[in-house]
Amino acid sequence: MLTFRLPVGDTVELAVDWTEANFGPLLDIISKQLDFLISSLKNALLFLPPELFIAGIFLLAYFVGKRNIKLAAGTAIGFFLIENMGLWTLSMETLALVLSSTLLALIIGIPLGILSAKNTTLSRILKPALDFMQTMPSFVYLIPALIFFGLGNVPSMIATVVFAMPPAIRLTNLGIRQVPKELIEVADAFGSTSWQKLSKVELPVALPTIMAGVNQCIMLSLSMVVIAAMIGARGLGYQVLLGIQRVDIGMGFEAGLSIVIIAVFLDRITQNLSPR
Amino acid sequence: MDKNVKIEIRNITKIFGKNPQKVLSFLKEGLSKKEIFEKTKQTVGLNNVSFEVYEGEIFVIMGLSGSGKSTLLRCINRLIKPTGGQILIDGQDIVTMNPEELRRVRRVKLGMVFQNFALLSHRNVLDNVAYGLEIQGISKDERHNKAIKAIENVGLKGHEESKITQLSGGMKQRVGIARALANDPDILLMDEAFSALDPLIRNEMQEELLALENRMQKTIIFVSHDLDEALKLGDRIALMKDGEVVQIGTPEEILTEPANSYVSRFVAGVDRSKILTAESVMKRPEPLVSINSGPRVAIQLMKDYGISSIYVVEGKNRHLKGILMISGALEALRSGKNLEAAMFLEAPRVAPDRSLNEVIPLIAESQYPLAVVNDSGKLLGIIVRGTVLGALAIAGENGQNEASKERNPEKKTSEEKTLEERNVSGKTFEGKPAEKTVLIGKNEGEAGPPSKSSGVPNAQNTIINNGIDSESVPINNRTDIESVPINNRTNIEPVPAELTAKESLGSDSGQEPEVKTC
Fold it and tell me: What are the transmembrane regions (chain A) (predicted)?
């Protein structure tokens, strides 16, 4: 068709190089902050001995899960199994990475979701960007992350945030737009300020939808954290990668099972946090 | 009623669309809503609406869906900003207010109740009711105290901590009303507030709203598509169509003097028995017999009028004593008893403000005419089956009568003209042109209480001298049970001239029946 090749890949490469060259120092600062966040969280999780941690997580599951003893017991048994398989430290590293990635994704995603609910132009711009972020194979994010931040936990976290953020934005936007018109009228008719309307009416009413977004965000983070082992993320993902490289089915399965246990735990907890 | 203007709406217009100025110029040229939509794809929500709402009244805005009634309500607290015009609340124009002022007015002066309750399900009843106070920054204790009072006011005491999802529809709307009352606003805006409730609960809520209004004296603007509701609640009603106000008036005016054919069609289906009162359908209580008369007088009166029972009164105030049957009178004549001994004391009676649907079962059960008696025991009028049926039929025939009037203008006989004149003097609920009320209207006109018939103060006290009137018996009074509906339907038939003549004579003569003897 065309006699020449459109330089799509080259252009992206140029843009990435340019960013790296011009914003290098800034990226370093960000990198240090994020690294600090991850390692603090990891240290906090590892501060408690596993026995105490399991006891704590049992109580958390019990009370958050509306006194569901099955959920609490299942959680405790799951984490006991992780400890027993000798994957405790790796699991805590993964959990730290997932939680810090999710936190960052939500800190960016929820306000963006609120803004795009209020501003139709913004939501029109965001929509294709979000489609792009969600459909692009997740491996592709690893490359620019690697270039900007090198190997390690920080580029993994960045790639994870990019991959996991769209549902948080989308569902926050959706949740706020779905607040019944009459409730908005109530807020206005009684003389609320914009902030009062948002904080006392829109966010509480949209909370179940927003929480569904948070849940999605966590699940996507967890899946990405495993893949991010390819650019040096520590934790269970790395163990899975080792299992692949060594064709060690037992090693891979044990690490994979630990990821499943963490995933189910996080999913049930966030679902129970959501009202209704 | 206190006639202070609370809200003044001046030339409010609302255009939904991107280029309202263009539509405004089309409206000035007199294009219809439909033509404008075809030309510009913009919708005229409200077109030049003006009216006043008085302090302390319930003003109902009524219309079918799409008539602009909810839009109009939302313009009053500016949930929708009008394209043009002014809305003055206590003299302040809300249309041009800045956001800060607007918030203040909304917080202090305006409460709103919504069709689908619009409660915040993440809050309990108490915090829902306290919402309006909370956003004003009122301390928790104070706002909870006020909210608890508002909750008591709507009869939900004890449900403060309930979740919204635990409440029934009626209870939810009580919460909605309590929320609007908690701020103690001057004005309540109610948007189809009871439409989502089932009929029994709706009725109950309407009663309670009226009771509440009695206690609190708020100015209430109530939007409804339900005519029965509008007639029940409204001190005044504005009927809307296509974004314009078609008619404003009291429920009676809307029913009896529809401004145009749209209004008369709109009111055609209404259950008049709820609106008409005993007072408005009763007829002149005649003949009567004084308690001091002898049985012979009573018998003669009954004979002359062709009736089998007669009411017994005392003194010029027509204090109702009882009812005398012809058999009782004959028995009294034979045994030489007086009337007091022969009559029944337990005459069926009803207060003048009772609605017709309360009167109908009473009259259906009773074999006697029903006496309309005021608090002090004065006999104001009587209701026979014919008057009830006639009143319902006449009120329902407004539209058709208008048509028949146009078709037969030459049939307006001199008798009817006389009746028309008489109608003017006795202004009643049925205050329609005489052709529509040939026989019944006449009777009612004179049966009303003194306050209503300013022209002929003595008319109701007049009881026709039986000697003169004997020939009019078949048409007059009790026997018109049969004749009324027929006359009403075929009202182009001339009324016998003698009747008219004597009736006029009777009204003017001012003779008292108590003094006559046989």
Answer: 44-64, 71-90, 96-117, 138-165, 218-237, 249-266
Residues on chain B bordering chain A, Cβ-to-Cβ distance under 8 angstroms = 74, 77, 79, 102-107, 110-112, 114-116, 118, 120-123, 131-132, 134-136, 179, 183, 189
Segment A221-240 shows an average pLDDT of: 88
Two tokens at A16?
């990435």
The CATH fold assigned to B278-515 is CBS-domain (3.10.580)
In this complex, do B112 and A275 lie within 8 Å of one another by their Cβ atoms? no
Residue A146's domain comprises 38-273
**Residue B451 CA from chain centroid, whole number:** 18
Over residues A81-110, the mean pLDDT reads 92
Inspect the interface and report whether the beta carbons of A200 and B134 lie closer than 8 Å: yes
Please state the rounded mean pLDDT for residues A124-151: 86
pLDDT at residue B393 in the model: 65
The pair of three-digit structure tokens given for residue B280, joined into one six-digit string: 């408005």
Say yes or no for a CB contact (<8 Å) between A191 and B79.
Answer: no
Which of B122, B128, B136, B163 to probe the A interface (max A CBs under 10 A)?
A: B122
Domain assignment present for A251? yes
Residue of B nearest to A203 (CA): B122
Residue A186 pLDDT level (bands cut at 50, 70, 90): very high
A186, B118: Cβ pair inside 8 Å?
Answer: yes
Least confident of B52-66, B190-204, B471-485: B471-485
Report the 3 state secondary structure along B75-117: HHCCCCCCCEEEEEECCEECCCCCHHHHHHHHHHCEEEECCCC
Which residues of chain A have a Cβ shorter than 8 Å from any chain B Cβ? 180, 182-183, 185-186, 188-193, 196, 200-201, 204-205, 207, 275
Structure tokens at B418: 């006389």
Q: How many domains does chain A have?
A: 1
Percent of chain B with pLDDT over 70: 73
Average pLDDT, chain B: 75
Sorted by where each begins, the domain ranges of chain B are 278-515
Q: What is the pLDDT of residue B493?
A: 43
Which residue type occupies B140? K
Is B384 or B149 the better-scoring residue by pLDDT? B149
| Interatomic CA distance for residues B83 and B104, integer angstroms | 22
| Residue A48 domain flag | yes
B101 vs chain A: nearest CA distance in angstroms?
Answer: 10
Q: Nearest residue on chain B to A204, judged by CA atoms?
A: B122
Collapsing DSSP to helix, strand or coil, A54 comes out as: helix
Task: Give the mean pLDDT of B448-469.
Answer: 40
In the prediction, which pLDDT does B405 show?
A: 41
Side chain identity at residue B373, one-letter code: V
Compare CB distances from B122 to A182, A186, A275 and report the shortest one's residue.
A275
- Bond preceding residue B287 cis, omega within 30 of 0: yes
A24 in any annotated domain: no
Whether A221 maps to a domain, the answer reads yes
CATH value at residue A75 = 1.10.3720.10
pLDDT at B475: 40
Contacts of B283 (CB under 8 A, 6+ apart): B381, B382, B383, B384, B387, B440, B443, B444, B446, B447, B477
Beta carbon pairs, A and B, within 8 Å: 63
**Euclidean distance between CA atoms B389 and B57, whole angstroms:** 32
Please determine, for residue B30, whether its predicted confidence score (pLDDT) is greater than 50.
yes
Question: Can you tell me the distance from the alpha carbon of B286 to that of B73, in angstroms, rounded to the nearest whole number?
Answer: 50
